[in-house]
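Lab notebook, bench 4. Still working through the backlog of constructs that have no structural model yet. Next entry is a single chain of 151 residues. Request: give me the structure tokens for it.
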Amino acid sequence: EVRPGARLSQGGTVLLLAGSREALPQPNPLRILPRAGSDLSGDWVSNFNWALSSSPLWKPLSPVIDDSILGWEASEVTPEFVIAGLGEQDSNNVLAGVFYGWLNSNFAYLAELQEGSGRMLVTTFRFEGYGRDPFATMLLEQMLNTLATKT
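Model written out:
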């Protein structure tokens, strides 16, 4: 078993599908938090899911995404968890997320992180619909293509 941190420190690439609180090795400044049963469920205040449409990762999906807001097309992949612990200094690395209220509570769904020469995409998007749902299929394949492309 190669842990994500070891793979990164060896200069590798990692796609981490973070579908539980335990998805990230600890200690880690990032945390995976569940949306259900908390204020992060989004059913108490206005919120929206967004994508950084200027990122090359989203370019092939831009005909589907309207103005960086993820709508019904993304319902199959809408995360049950968020990535917490990213600060303002990390904002260029957040490729998708959610905000609640008056932009005062932001969390990531997809972030690109680097450690040395290693590169990782960590996401809480869900891919149970891969191969059946067109958006889920395109998004996961685009994440893999992005990691396969050296920048």
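Notes after review: The chain has a mean pLDDT of 87. The longest strand covers residues 105-115. Flag for follow-up if needed.
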